Amino acid sequence: MPAPIRVAVTGAAGQIGYSLLFRIAAGQMFGPDQPVILQMVEVPVEKAMKAAEGVAMELDDCAYPLLNGIEISDNADQGFKDANWCLLVGAKPRGPGMERADLLKDNGKIFIGQGKAIDRVAAENARVAVVGNPANTNCMIAASQAKRLPADRFTAMVRLDQNRAQTQLAKKASVHNTDVTDIFIFGNHSPTMFPAFHIAKINGKPVPETIGHHAWLQDEFCSTVGKRGAAIIAARGLSSAASAANALIDHVRDLTTPGKIHSVAVKSGGHYGFDPNVWAGMPVKTTGHGTYEILTDYPLDDFAKQKIAATNEELVSERDTVKDMLG
Ligand code: NAX
Question: Which of 222, 239, 242, 264 has the smallest set of CB atoms within 10 Å of its CB?
């Protein structure tokens, strides 16, 4: 067995945390031969810390063979110490009447502190995956604080959107979701995202050819995927949690599996017409344990260009809102 890796999870007592930690401990994120030490990070509030202790008790009660330790902390310097992976799930939810700009500013502050702490104390090979919303911009803020860790170590999750898009296409074509491939998310994790159906394939054939219904692809499909989070809240009374945790398992597992091609929000570098300094979803190919290259050769038609311009505009405006928070 290799030495255990340290996995820090913020928001460990939250909804997503509760679906996520058990799957990491079971080996679903890093594989069945990789022991892990979980570093649960919460806010310094008694209720949250108590809840985190309860989750740790349940993890103990699972007697997972790969779980080599559980640490709970209420501060970032302790929570990220020597962490190989930092999974930034914790953030404030949007309260009633709260504007998106206020959410950006409130949550942005969290990611300044966490970005600095990760850069200071995490392992030499530390990698970061951001889930807490607005995920792309929070990731940009955290990355901007880092002096030691390069920007490509900081990724944000658009995998839930990719998984949602895959299933919607499969349902429409009456095939199994594994028959749908090459579906990638471009842009922001928000309703402006573009699920690039023109690249996707069903049993190896282009989706527009197989589904044939262009108006459905351009309108209903894009809007169903973009607004799926809101539809879950309307139905369940709570935001997506198990599916978000599942997507984070997919995000990290595919980023540590060479050859995998998948959607990740990364520093765009100007590819596909994005502003070079925003974090945008795009297709990447994993090249090693946590390393990846952006795949830059997928074609964009006029509709794709227009959708990407809109989601890029939103990312640039989010960056303008938090410009004072960038290191
Ligand atoms: P919950 O409100 O259930 O849990 C959040 C937890 O984070 C709480 O326990 C809270 O105490 C903790 N927390 C807050 N600030 C923290 C900090 N500075 N350090 C450590 N812990 C902190 O939310 P949950 O449903 O788990 O969602 C977490 C985040 O994921 C939210 O921002 C949510 O919007 C976002 N999501 C992102 C998705 C994505 O695809 N990128 C999809 C699902 C989800 O909506």
Answer: 242
Task: Supply the pTM of this predicted model.
Answer: 0.98
Name the class of domain 5-156.
alpha beta
Place of tokens 């022991």: 35
**Residue extents of the structural domains in the chain:** 5-156, 159-325
Helix or strand run (H / E) with residue 263: strand 261-267
**Most ligand 1 atoms within 8 A of CB, residue of 239, 248, 262, 279 to mutate:** 239
Amino acid (one-letter) located at 113: G
Structure token pair of residue 224: 């169903």
**Pairwise CA distance, residues 87 & 90, whole Å:** 9
Contact 172, 158 (CB under 8 A): no
Sheet of 154-156, strand order: 67-73, 36-41, 5-10, 85-88, 127-130, 154-156, 261-267, 279-286, 292-294
**Predicted confidence (pLDDT) per residue in 257-302, tens digit:** 999 999 999 999 999 999 999 999 999 999 999 999 999 999 999 9
Pocket, ligand 1, Cβ cutoff 6 A: 10-11, 13-17, 41-43, 48, 89-93, 110, 131-133, 135, 157, 160, 189, 229, 239-241, 244
Architecture in CATH for domain 159-325: Alpha-Beta Complex (3.90)
Strand 185-186 to 127-130 pairing: unpaired
Which residue has a Cα nearest atom 34 of ligand 1?
133
Is the model's pLDDT at 101 over the cut of 90? no
- Most informative mutation of 16, 111, 250 for ligand 1 (most atoms within 8 A of CB): 16
Active site residues: 189
